[in-house]
Amino acid sequence: MAERVQQPPAKRLCCRPGYNTNCRQGQRAGGALCGGSGAAQGGSSKTHSPESLLDISARKVAEKWPFQRVEERFERIPEPVQRRIVYWSFPRSEREICMYSSFNTGGEESGTSGENSDETRLPFRRGIALLESGCVDNVLQVGFHLSGTVTEPATASEPELVCSVSVSFDRCKITAVTCGCGNKDIFYCAHVVALALYRVRKPEQVKLHLPISETLFQMNRDQLQKFVQYLITVHHTEVLPTAQKLADEILSTNSEINQVHGAPDPTAGASVDDENCWHLDEEQVQEQVKLFLSQGGYHGSGKQLNLLFSKVREMLKMRDSNGARMLTLITEQFMGDPRLALWRQQGTTMTDKYRQLWDELGALWMCIVLNPHCKSEQKAVWLRQLRRWNSVDVCPWEDGNHGNELPNLTHALPHVLQVAHDSSSRPHRTVFTRAIEACDLNWQDTHLQRIITHDLYTHSHTHCHHDNHDGSGALFDARGWPLWHEHVPTACARVDALRSHGYPREALRLAIAIVNTLRRQQQKQLELFRSHKKELLLKGMTSVTNMEGWVGHPLDPIGTLFSTLMETGRVEEDGGNAFLDFSGTLKPPPHLFPAQHFLDDGQSFVALAVETALIGLGQQRVMPDGLYAQEKVCRNEEQLLAKLQEVELDDTLVKIFRKQAVFLLEAGPYSGLGELLYRESVPMHTFAKYLFSSLLPHDAPLAYKIALRAMRLPVLESTAPSGDLSRPHHIVSVVHNRYPRWFTLSHIESQQCELASTMLTAAKGDGRKLETVLESIQKNIHSSSHIFKLAQDAFKIATLMDSLPDITLLKVSLELGLQVMRMTLSTLNWRRREMVRWLVTCATEVGVYALDSIMQSWFTLFTPTEATSIVATTVMSNTTIVRLHLDCHQQENLASSARTLALQCAMKDPQNCALSALTLCEKDHIAFETAYQIVLDAAATGMSYTQLFTIARYMEHRGYPMRAYKLATLAMTHLNLSYNQDTHPAINDVLWACALSHSLGKNELAAVIPLVVKSVKCATVLSDILRRCTLTTPGMVALHSRRNSGKLMSLDKAPLRQLLDATIGAYINTTHSRLTHISPRHYSEFIEFLSKARETFLMAHDGHIQFTQFIDNLKQIYKGKKKLMMLVRERFG
User: Whole-prediction pTM value?
Assistant: First the structure.
């Protein structure tokens, strides 16, 4: 708490009797000075004597009446009576003190320190430790005021701290606290806890005095003067200025202090007008919430806010009015969060965790306004508050920035949908809308009252034989058990409200009535579908009652029912505890649990909870609009399933699973696993996976029926299957053109994949089941990545190290892999190479015939590049041959298929496959020649010089120089090197081609040089080729080290003369090109270039003269570049 050292002002004025007729009457108590211990009063005596009538009466009065009302009611109150009322007015239970001093009430009455180190730091735990260490001293109770000192022992880092603590109380509630420690927090500090617990645990050791005004009434004037003067003397530095000021005002006739009768007394208890509630520091609540919100979910702020919400629920359960008060403070801070306006302005959505906090806020307000004992005046105040918040522009919408097409919760769905044609014309529903609507609900219905207040309320105990709620259902089922027909989420909100406000018995009774109603409705739906099955299947109708799902609903109806029943089930197993009844009286557990006779023979509350969850999860419901609403459906389903998985299945539960599974399969449009499925219904994959795993050990055929039925995902079908129209007749008129985007489709598909994987694992070794599962996968899964994952899963399961490979499952894996290949053949997929490699591995495991098969039909599975570079290459590798233990005949057959594939691919895509085809066909002369011819045919049209040079080099490497020469000349015809491309990657290929031609002989070199002159315009490259050709005689180094004895080729004759002239011409052209845009920083580089040019010029017979003329021309043409020409003259004259 924000504990201030100043004492709180007195709440009411006290004066002598007879001082004024309007003053309180009968204030004199008479007798001696007030004192005595609690032990003397008998209230805390540990004897077993019967309690006195005085104590019984005083305790009741102390609980319910403000002390002023007691004083006004009786002219004179005997001092012993006053003492007992004052004594009993202090809180007697540690539970509330714990609630106001810690986030959790783990210790409650026990007072033992928690094992968790974080828990020991809670103020409540620390307060207990201080109390048990004897750190509480000087405890004094004066009237309705308790004071004392609490000593905080010294630590290594902190000195000893003595805190003065005072506590005001009224009607068994602490109404004000102050402590000298100065700590600021929402909760009471440890020192306040220590003092309060001292009074609870050791009342007999606390000095008790009547209110100070009573003591003063007994003094005469001299005693009063002595009292005041001694008080001033003892505390003169603190109170003297105040004392003098008060004296001046009292002596002034017209002062304000003389206009009122009596004087304030901080120890005199509560005024009639005071609200009776526990002390809550509103300022600190607001500050803390504001701080948590400003942290934006970091530093555990989300967790802290959730703990505050839990504290509100705890207060509601204790029927503490501060619950609503605290929630109001929290809501004001949430509504003031500056991020709301920013997000609305930017059009962005709030974070998921923050969104969930808003959901909890709305749910808590729903609980508060549904308080069964709430006064209409208080509800009106809350309604005004909620409407004010609801009208603010930035108030979050219920479904996360999307309009909601769901009806008002106070009406049953079908009645509203008749007029709900245009959702866009209705205002958006906010997080407060449901709470506002719930303000119209009441608890006055006679049938409802009897359900929640009577354990034995059955048809035989009443004369009501008629139907209720417009004939939508009977008040009782065939067994005479009560039913409650109301919009299911609304009815469950009532259950949540009863639980939240501390009425567990009543909540349980209503929950059982609702569940019995759901079970009866389920049976009626099944009968209805069976009687109209042919007609409905023909028309493909889907019931409109599926428009609003219970799982993922903002009010979480199924979760509420499940929790209510499970809590009772756990108590039942633990032996039972006391219950609070509807009047607030604590009662011991009866021989039968509340409404236990409304269970079937041998059934438990846990079994009923499980059945309820199965009913809700199996309901066919339309996928809601908006990302958040769709994510909430998935999250809520997973939460429910997680709770179900904690329940250990016994024979009773297995029977329930069987019963519900059969219903789900046969219930038509009412079930998400029925024969009629609306195209946009929420898929059942996750739920079916749980059902499958649960039923498999007990009823495998039923488990497979459920799982196979659940594999459907019609929203991805281009056309709805037979009996499953995408826009059923019943819905078209209600929701026109309703095709929302499925934001969670990726998650849904992954869940579908998980279901299929679970079935594949379970079906291992059963060929027929595997075939059925495979057909379902191929029919219903539309994502290549998920089918690939299933293929991999099947492969892993089939090839587990601890057993022989399961060939049937391997074939399923291969079949799925082939489907992936076909699906991704014409689309871009970054995992494609991985998929192809994996498929070859899988086919290898299946056997040689599988490899042969995929090569025979390669064009439907692979691109030509994949088929040659991955598939055929892997098949021909030694690793594959060894892995398959192939004999020579099998090897040759496989190699023949690979060569055929390679040639087909080379024909289809010679640019990318020709080299691979040649490599694969090396060992077969005919195939190799065929591949070479394919290259020649493609060279003139579709192949680039890079591809041709690569194949040409391969040919030389394999010992075919003339073929390499042929391909190199073909490549040269495609090449074009400009004057400035002296770093082009093809230069090495050109040099290699010329070297190859030179090595083959004069004729080959003479044939290639014209091609070089035509294709290459770069002077440095041409000069490099020219020098290489002049170093050795053509044909000098040929194959098999055969040498020519010829002479070096002359530069004055063809073909080198042609090359020399082209090189000189290239230097001249390049020089002029460079001089056009040359800058001074390139001058030195240019001079070096001219030096290389001179070397080439000088190779000609008249080269010196040509170069001199060339330099003179440059000087004349570029004489404006004086500095450059000066450098030219210095170097070349």
Answer: 0.78
3-state secondary structure of 70: helix
1054 Cβ contact partners less than 8 Å away, ≥ 6 residues apart: 1006
Q: How far apart are CA 729 and CA 726, in angstroms?
A: 10
What are the angstrom distances between the C-alpha of 370 and each of 326, 385, 1009?
Answer: 17, 15, 99
Which residue is listed with tokens 């000609």?
1100
Backbone angles phi, psi at 142, to 5 degrees: -115, 105
Give 335's contacts (C-beta < 8 A, 6+ positions apart).
389, 392, 394, 395
| H-helix segments, 373-472 | 376-390, 413-417, 433-438, 446-453
CA dihedral angle for residue 1115, residue 1118, residue 1122, residue 1128, rounded to 10 degrees: -40
Find the helix packing angle between 961-972 and 945-957, rounded to 10°.
170
CA distance 61 to 171: 8
Q: Per the structure block, which two tokens stand in for 867? A: 């088929």
- Rounded Cα distance, 426 and 419, in Å: 11
Between CA 868 and CA 904 the distance in angstroms is: 10
Q: Across the chain, what does the average pLDDT equal?
A: 82
Q: What is the mean pLDDT of residues 758-777?
A: 94
Query: In degrees to the nearest 10, what's the CA dihedral of 851, 854, 855, 859?
Result: -170
List all residues 6 or more positions away from 1004 whose beta carbon is below 8 Å from its beta carbon.
965, 996, 997, 998, 1034
Q: Which of 11, 134, 123 is nearest to 66 (CA)?
A: 11
Query: What share of the chain has pLDDT > 90, as a percent?
Result: 41
Q: Which residues of 610-636 are buried (b: 16+ CB within 10 A; e: fewer)?
A: bbbbbbbbbbbbbbbbbbbbbbbbbeb
What is the Cα–Cα distance from 815 to 1003, expressed in whole angstroms?
58
- Residue 890 in contact with residue 882, Cβ under 8 Å? no
Instruction: Report the DSSP beta bridge partners of residue 681.
Output: 622
Residue 424 has phi, psi (to 5 degrees) of -70, -20
- pLDDT of the residue at 634: 94
Q: How far apart are CA 133 and CA 153, in angstroms?
A: 10
- Of 184, 375, 368, 376, which Cα lies nearest the Cα of 284? 184
- CA-angle at 254, arms to 249 and 260, nearest 5°: 80
pLDDT digits (tens, 9 = 90+) for 585-641: 444 444 445 556 567 666 789 999 999 999 999 999 989 888 888 999 999 999 999
Peptide bond into 91 cis (omega under 30): no
CB atoms within 10 A of CB 865: 16
Q: CB of 679 within 8 A of CB of 726?
A: yes
Handedness of CA 1016, 1018, 1019, 1020 (dihedral sign): negative
Three-state secondary structure readout of 292-323: HHHCCCCCCHHHHHHHHHHHHHHHHHCCCCHH
The residues pairing with 619 across neighbouring beta strands, listed in sequence order, are 671
Give the tokens for residue 1087: 């001079």
User: Smallest Cα–Cα separation from 400: which of 428, 367, 371?
Assistant: 428
Lowest-pLDDT range, 50-54, 488-492, 913-917, 925-929? Answer: 50-54
Q: Compute the distance between CA of residue 459 and CA of residue 445 in angstroms, rounded to an integer.
A: 17
Cα–Cα dist 187/147, whole Å? 19
Burial class (CB in 10 A: 0-12, 13-18, 19+), 233: exposed
**Residues making up the chain, counted from first to last:** 1133
Q: Is 136 helix (H, G, I), strand (E, B) or coil?
A: strand
Distance CA(949)–CA(967), nearest Å, equals 7
Q: Are the C-beta atoms of residues 1055 and 1001 closer than 8 Å to each other?
A: no
What CA–CA distance (Å, rounded) separates 704 from 696? Answer: 8
Map out the domains of the chain as residue ranges: 52-104+121-235+264-279, 282-400+429-439, 981-1033+1049-1132
